Structures are given as structure tokens and as C-alpha cells.
Amino acid sequence: MKNIDYILESDEALKPSERLILLLLEKHYVLYTNDLLALSNLSYKTLNDALVNLVAKQYIRKDRGEGRNQNRYSLAS
Questions:
Q1: pTM for the complete prediction?
Q2: Which SUPFAM superfamilies does the entry link to (predicted)?
């Protein structure tokens, strides 16, 4: 499996909604074409609201000297 964080952080050209779709594809391996089309047609807010229980948006904090100050998406526990 590819490194999800690398995919999400390395391609700054991706919109946040596209990053969330990539996260789902990486996590679940298969996302049916119809589901992907439905997700791609949603606005970012709608998509984010629909995935709020699955995906948590976290910030890596620089004040503790850990990580980079970038957005990071990870699966909610």
C-alpha cells in the first residue's frame, strides 16, 4: 500500500476534496466507479460533512518541534 501521508502532502495541486477521495481509495482499495463519480460531483463542504466520521483533519504542530506545519488527513480512530 502506498504511503497515504505522502500522497496527500506531496501533491499541492490537488484540491482538498480530491485528497479525501485519494485517501478513501488508498484505505479501501476499491471504490466503485459510480461512487467515485458521485463523490467527485459533491462540493467540498458536502464531501467533508459526509466523511467527518471517517476522516479526521489534523495539523502537525511546529511548536512541539514535531513534523511539518501542513494539513494532514488521517483515518479517525
A1: 0.25
A2: Winged helix' DNA-binding domain (SSF46785)
Identify the DSSP state of 67.
S
Query: What digits encode the pLDDT tens for the residues 16-70?
Result: 666 666 666 666 544 455 555 555 565 666 666 666 545 544 444 555 555 554 5
What is the DSSP-derived secondary structure letter of residue 24? H
CB 55 within 8 A of CB 39: no
Beta bridge partners of 71: 59
Give 28-62 as a DSSP string: HS---HHHHHHHHTS-HHHHHHHTTTTEEEEE--T
User: What is the CB-side half-sphere exposure of residue 51 using CA atoms within 13 A?
Assistant: 24
For residues 7-21, b (16+ Cβ closer than 10 Å) or e, as one string? bbbeeeeeeebbbbb
